[in-house]
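As a warm-up, study this chain.
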Amino acid sequence: MFNQLPQPLDGAGLDRARQPIINGFDVYPDCLYDTLTYPLAGQAVGTPLKFFQGATSAPSDISLTNVPQGTLPGGQKFHARKAFLVPLIETFVSGAAVVDASGLMRDLDRVIKTNRPQWSYVQTSINKFRGPFPLDALGEMGGDVGDFGGNNVPAAGNNAVYQHPRLPLIGGWPLDLVIFETETFPFNLTWGVQTAIVANMLLQLRLYGWRYIKTG
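Now compare it with the structure written out below.
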């Protein structure tokens, strides 16, 4: 069972939870995320989308990024254990123009697979470059699946519900990346082919792990 809870705390464990942490860190699971736009015209070959580098168009918008300057605040550290790429798209659209073979489902294939995308990052603490890796390795990427109902046929696709690339939270790319305070951790996405898509697509890169906040 994926969501099985751990054993409950005993009385002494509950009491320890109320004790202040002295000269240590408050540690809890958290997520760092940053959002950039894959453009309608396609991303130029070899020109990266620069995640976690202060490139988000609206850095004050907490729904787009929680690392607006590309570094952690002083007194904090983050141990990233999983990486995911999430296209911020709707899973229901009405009308053939955006669902059929010349629309959004095709665009997802181009952005995630057929335009030969790769990603890489720098482990700044030891000055090591990691990658490049295939982009569709993030989150156990699967195919795009269209579910067509009623009398609609796949060629028309009216009012179709589709499943975007599968990026389950039980998957993700395994990381062991420790990010120190005020230290950069640039992630770059590049494409080997530039092909236009129907509309700009927001891509959100997420790092899941443990946040450490200095206390005492």
